[in-house]
Amino acid sequence: MRRLIPCMLFSCIILVGAAAIPAVAEVDDSDCAMCHEELAAAFEKTGHPGCQSCHGPGDAHMDEGGDPEQIIRPQTLSPEASSDGCLTCHDRQENHFAARQGIHRLAEVGCIDCHTPHGGADVMMRDQGAALCSGCHQGVAARFSMPRSHPMAETGPGCVSCHDPHASGNNHPSRTADEVCGRCHFEKTGPFLYAHDTMLVDGCSTCHEVHGSTGRHLLVQETQVNLCYSCHGAGVTPGWHSAQRFLGEKCTACHTAIHGSNTSQFFLEE
Ligand code: HEC
Ligand code: HEC
Ligand code: HEC
Ligand code: HEC
Ligand code: HEC
Ligand code: HEC
Ligand code: HEC
Ligand code: HEC
Ligand code: HEC
Ligand code: HEC
């Protein structure tokens, strides 16, 4: 009985998409290893249930000495349909439920573009670290070779230290002041008695281009004064803060607590 339930899960998809497939597995999963030896050995480490829970009943396939037409091949389904197959079991995890609305889902990137259900570089990943993402996101990956870039090797798993690949909607961190960045830079996120308003509204990437930039401290502008004057024009800063006076200097020479302060409303000290 234990084997029947998962078999029905994947065959549901097939019933919709193509010809009906008998829902009863008549062979033992261990029989598959006779011919798919290498794959079965890697598969053992995954903790995934038997082969037929995803490939459907294998008896006809085996009777024909391994006819690929007689077995479910998830890679021939649409990304959506094959991912739905995965979600019949993984829906229980709240996060993967969100995957149905996720940016990758909507862009027709399926679970198996990133995961290999039989085992891979890191148990079930197609690749490790940033390499998993870089192939599809070459523009972003290139920013990491700019003169300055956010260190990734030091911070753990690469892109996923900031992005959740399963998340729904906009999975950018940092649109608002930021739990993601605060995991590591908690002294910058506050809360502060005197917060820099812009940070509360638009988050860290108002001033930082975190993937990589030419500016020091990954600032979006190469010259800090230009960054500050892009919002604090003449007449907003006190008269003695003239552009001429500070050109080439750093405003943060005095406004040291630029991210926020508990003692100074002008961010003059921590
Ligand atoms: C969790 C679902 C799942 C389970 C369990 C599973 N597979 Fe697969 N299998 C897939 C998916 C998805 C693909 C297509 C993507 C890929 O190539 O990784 C696939 C592809 C294949 C392929 C063709 C591509 C290749 O990698 O050679 C073979 C053969 C195969 N599976 C055999 C097996 C055998 C044998 C078992 C049990 C030892 C098994 N599968 C268990 C989901 C699964
Ligand atoms: C008698 C040997 C044999 C047995 C037993 C066997 N297969 Fe196969 N299988 C083959 C051959 C041969 C192919 C076609 C060549 C290839 O793709 O490896 C194949 C192909 C497949 C494919 C499609 C591969 C592709 O290219 O997409 C899947 C999936 C698959 N087998 C799964 C299974 C599962 C699951 C079982 C156990 C229920 C099983 N096989 C048992 C011999 C066998
Ligand atoms: C029949 C149920 C079932 C199906 C279908 C299924 N899985 Fe799984 N999956 C499991 C179980 C059980 C585990 C191991 C227990 C665990 O770690 O949650 C697991 C573990 C995983 C893990 C590793 C979890 C970890 O914490 O390391 C990944 C990744 C994964 N599955 C991806 C997939 C993908 C991709 C598919 C579709 C191709 C898929 N699964 C289809 C039941 C399933
Ligand atoms: C864009 C790439 C990508 C896609 C698409 C993707 N995943 Fe993942 N998945 C990952 C990465 C990377 C991790 C490891 C996360 C980490 O280390 O924090 C992961 C982890 C997991 C895990 C184990 C950890 C956990 O969160 O429970 C499961 C299970 C899983 N994914 C299932 C799925 C399923 C099911 C789908 C399709 C609905 C899917 N994934 C789609 C990249 C992806
Ligand atoms: C198979 C290709 C593929 C892989 C692998 C992939 N992505 Fe994507 N990703 C896309 C597509 C397509 C989109 C849709 C928007 C676009 O074209 O940028 C997208 C969108 C995104 C977005 C939102 C972009 C925006 O403009 O709102 C982020 C963030 C993202 N991916 C991060 C990741 C991360 C992190 C990984 C690795 C864990 C990853 N992606 C792996 C194809 C991929
Ligand atoms: C230090 C945290 C961090 C790391 C590490 C990171 N990102 Fe991002 N990413 C962000 C932030 C913040 C944004 C939002 C930028 C904005 O709003 O202007 C973003 C935006 C994106 C976008 C959408 C906008 C764009 O620039 O195209 C994609 C796609 C993306 N990241 C992919 C990746 C990939 C792929 C990697 C790994 C090679 C990665 N990110 C590593 C923080 C990070
Ligand atoms: C209003 C613009 C602005 C915003 C918004 C902003 N920063 Fe900064 N950040 C700066 C400036 C300017 C510097 C350079 C300070 C200096 O010259 O010493 C800096 C420096 C840094 C540094 C490196 C210097 C250090 O003290 O360690 C980190 C890390 C940092 N910011 C993280 C963040 C995080 C995380 C956020 C979001 C919570 C954020 N920043 C939001 C302007 C900003
Ligand atoms: C997993 C931990 C981690 C996360 C998450 C993280 N960072 Fe970092 N970040 C680091 C480390 C480590 C460094 C290098 C050491 C340093 O300068 O603080 C760094 C460096 C920086 C720098 C450059 C500092 C300099 O002086 O040049 C900025 C700016 C920055 N991070 C902003 C961000 C922002 C914004 C986010 C959220 C989108 C973020 N970081 C998320 C760990 C992290
Ligand atoms: C994206 C726009 C933006 C950028 C860039 C920016 N700020 Fe601000 N800043 C604001 C806003 C909005 C406020 C709160 C409104 C106000 O009081 O004027 C503020 C408040 C301040 C205050 C406190 C003013 C007061 O009256 O309480 C100081 C000081 C300040 N910013 C300095 C800087 C410096 C120095 C930089 C460059 C490192 C900078 N800001 C960059 C938008 C910005
Ligand atoms: C020599 C130290 C010093 C430097 C450098 C400096 N400031 Fe200030 N700033 C102050 C002091 C002190 C105040 C408190 C108000 C006052 O004295 O008028 C202040 C106040 C401000 C205010 C709040 C004005 C108000 O009345 O609400 C803004 C905005 C500001 N500075 C922006 C900047 C910008 C942008 C730069 C770089 C172009 C900069 N500051 C460079 C010392 C400095």
From TrEMBL:
Q: Which UniProt keywords apply?
A: Signal
Signal sequence region: 1-25
Question: Is Hydrolase one of the keywords UniProt gives this record?
Answer: no
Q: Is the keyword Transcription in the record?
A: no
Q: Which InterPro entries match?
A: Multihaem_cyt_sf, Multiheme_Cytochr_ET, Paired_CXXCH_1
Q: Which NCBIfam families is this protein grouped with?
A: paired_CXXCH_1
Q: Please state what the protein is called.
A: Doubled CXXCH motif domain-containing protein
For this protein's source organism, the top of the classification is:
Bacteria, Pseudomonadati, Acidobacteriota, Candidatus Polarisedimenticolia, Candidatus Polarisedimenticolales
